[in-house]
Amino acid sequence: MTTTAPRYVGTSLPRKEDPALLTGRATWTDDISPPGTLHLAVVRSPFPHAKIVSIDTAAAREQEGVRAVYTAEDVDHEFLAGIPCGWPVTEDIKIPDHRPLAREEVNHVGDGVAVVLATSARAARDAADLVEVEYDELPAVVDMADALADDAPLVHTELGTNHCYTWPLATGDVDAAFAEADVVVSGRYLQQRVIASPMEPRAVVCVPDQVGGGFTVYTATQVPHFVRDILAAVTGIADTKIRVIAPDVGGGFGAKLNVYAEEFLALVLARKLGAPVKWTETRSEHHQATTHGRGQIQDISVAATSDGKILGMKIELLADMGAYLQLLTPGIAVFGAFTFCGLYDFGSYSFTCRGVFTNLTPTDAYRGAGRSEAAYGHERIMDDLARELGMDAAEVRLRNLHPKFDEPRTVPSGVQYDSGDYETCMRKAMELVDYEKLREEQRTRRESGDAVQIGIGFGNFTESGGLSPSKVAAGVRLQSGGWEQATVRMTTSGKVEVVTGTSPHGQGHETAWSQIVADQLGVHPDDVEVLHGDTLIAPFGRDTYGSRSLAVGGTAVHLAAGKVLDKAMLIAAHLLEADEKDLEFEAGRFQVAGTAGPSVTIQEVAGAASLAANLPDGMEPNLTADSAFDPPNFTWPFGTHVCVTEVDTETGFTRIRRYVAVDDCGVVVNPTIVEGQLHGGIAQGIGQALYEHATFDDAGNPTAGNLASYTVPAATDLPHFELEQTVTPSPTNPMGVKGIGESGAIGSSPAVVNAVIDAVAHLGVTHVDMPATPQAVWRAIKQASEQTA
């Protein structure tokens, strides 16, 4: 069989999703209010750590519109277990009991202690303010290092420790590498806590089926299948009785990769009251009760020769768990263990992570989870190594890159990267930014003593995308398979319907999946409808996160479409009275190769398959096929990001003058979607580098409790992004794709911070923590000046 070259894959088709989003015809969870809906409000702890002495709900119950007020005592029996952790990274990990409502003790500001249900959201919130809770305040632990002290207050007394787990990894002889080194460079780099700021906050509506005894759960989530499965496990309701629908979702960024207390409460209270229950969080609740990202102390050392060749690397991490373990909390830092070695080739590597409990909001996934933290660490230490050796930052990197490889290659962390051409990518970025000319300008400005200095920063990275091979997931104790499911079927009229287990929230799956199927089946993308985000329509799926959608979910679609085409070929050969080996398929039409004889379109074949009157013996009717794809390895997209900053040495203010990114995500399906994903990811990385910080006071009270005090960049704060690609196909899937959704967030923060430091390094500044605010940069300059005076 022969086919034409792809017509749609690789083309920037307009996104099918956009018209509804841009014209206000999208459906968000908060738009859904069935008749009789009761609105839920949560009474939250104002203390980081306290005993619950008493809860008086009498005044709240008397308010107009209030239907019920519940505490943990009223609802605990509805749950078979607490909120589960899905990634217990070690056998001896400490996992505290985490109930949807706190019973005896609250452990962070925002911990829920009671709920109010009323006929309107305003009535519920007003009544919640009248619930009187008496607390006996306890000492709180905020700092990770302090939390491990022998005399530290305990977040959970019953655990007897604030130490959650220790997870080690080592390859090669690290001690020998450091003993043989000409130079050893060490650095401590902080990953501050950050808060995902999606346009749509979290929301859930649970509707009981009065006839069938089931429940429909509408929720703003990245993971409807996880929500269904975990709700069933915790409440005892059969998973066949829980239908989860993710309507249009206004951003996820990892914060919606979870199952939260409010989803459990909405379900059991809808069951208890026999009425729809709805909750939509406020932005302040989002900052208190939705998981935060990052939160690491990174101690990194590299051993190298005098000419800049790395011999070994050591990483010691402290990872902030917060007060509880949410779905993936312990595994986020561990996930980064495999990429702290970056794009660099050396012999010995050790990594140890200690998870630590604090009286703060739990942490979990945030765009680039684990890999972004790793890239920041290895790119900061590369610049520090270059400064120690008096070498150019680019030259040190180029000397240590893996050579080009097209088949899996084992890297220092012990895993196998799929394919890479790192030097070509990096040199292309340097050429685009005109690196040598920038260095010359930098020398000129330094010599003239210009108040505004320029800096050039690199962000080389790779990430483990395509999450994940199921056996590998099991090997690191992740309690989920990494496969993905798809169904492709041609209707009687010849249109195509695709059911995917991935659940998009801005990635453009409806468009990209249509392009994949259109090329294979010879139809127009407009004739392909993609169904997703509904566990009744797509009962099998592992959802969307970890740069996996295209590499795993898109591959499942590709394989299912291939099965449909194979069956169509057999039917076409039967209809044409020919051998299928002699047929060619071009532009949606089957014909005997090299002849001008009869032909049949794939739409005609679909009609014949439905009519079933003239099919090969033993063949079942209809053109439909399922496929489940479990990847044999991760994919490893990579790139080089280069940031050029101008730093005012008198005020510390940083302006990004240029931003160049060369990314390699394997074969590109839709270039515009790739650019859009990079724009968003780079913006988030710049936000962490220069603006964002979820701060707390020494007692554990949040001091960035809403968007008035938590700074995120506006469009006017961002530069024009100059984007280019190289293409190194992945050998781990038949399409050669790798994924792009998190790359921008991974390469950007180290590029920006390295550029800020590089701009003022000649003044003695060698370190600035994120966010590199004007005040932080000014203080670093001042401190360096005082030390050299």
Overview of the molecule:
With 789 residues, the protein is an alpha+beta fold. The strands form 7 sheets. It has a 7-stranded mixed beta sheet, sandwiched between helices. It has a 5-stranded mixed beta sheet with strand order 7-15-14-13-8. A 4-stranded mixed beta sheet has the order 18-26-27-28, with helices on both faces. The longest helix is centred in the C-terminal third of the chain and has 28 residues, at 549-576.
Task: Name the descriptors.
five-stranded mixed β-sheet; oxidoreductase; AldOxase/xan_DH_MoCoBD2; 29% helix; molybdenum; seven-stranded mixed β-sheet; 28 strands; globular; Molybdopterin-dependent oxidoreductase; 789 residues
Any low-confidence stretches, pLDDT <50, length ≥5? Answer: none
Structural class by secondary-structure content: alpha+beta
- Order the strands across the largest sheet as they lie in space: 3-5-1-12-9-10-11
Main pleated sheet: 7 strands, mixed
The amount of helix comes to: 25-40%
| CA distance, first residue to last residue | 77 Å
β-strand amount: 15-25%
- Computed CA radius of gyration, to the nearest angstrom: 28 Å
Shape: globular
**Mean residue pLDDT:** 97
Number of strands: 28
- Count of separate DSSP helical elements: 21
